[in-house]
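User: Before I run my own analysis I want an independent prediction to cross-check against. Here's the chain; please return only the structure tokens and, at the end, one sentence I can use as a sanity check.
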Amino acid sequence: MPQTTPLRFSLTALLALVCACWTPAVMAERADREQAMNAEADALRYDDASQTSIFTGRVVITKGSIQIRGARVEVRQDPQGYQFGTVLAGPDQIASFRQKREGVNEYIEGQAQRIEYDSRADQVKFSGQAVLRRYRGQVLSDETSGAVIVYDNRTEVFRVDGGAASASPANPSGRVRATLAPRSRAEPAAAKPVDLQPSTGLGVQP
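Assistant: Structure tokens:
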């Protein structure tokens, strides 16, 4: 029998492939950024002068279809009413973000040690052992992991950067990894799981 060769791509090729597969699938609820933000936590510290709220202890934030969970969440609101949230995971825990795709029963779900949400830019940044998943109902469809993932809802594009910060027992090299489920006959064919070198040319702004 002929031997099979592991499928390998450059980071640029992977991102082009992943974005092509995800672009029609990650359009999140457009109305979410216009919704009120609600929060539950064990404690709250509010500073009216800076319009900043700091929630600690089993924090759950909801904003439309968005749900955010973490050990500590700091939320700031600017004079125009836009909200900016920083979510931190507790020791041996992970912070999470979940949002519904518009018009269908699909969800985007991300997790990391740190999550930053910017309602003005309509962007979410996952840092530290970051994972981004897409679910069709309750079924996992696609999954991507790396050191940093930036998901832009306006352009429907996400960027992934690998490195030592994403290293784990299952992935000691910290390389970017993606698994893409097959599409229906009406959709483009998806690739098999790929294993990539860390990014050297793709920068993610802090």
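Sanity check: The first strand starts at residue 38 and ends at 40.
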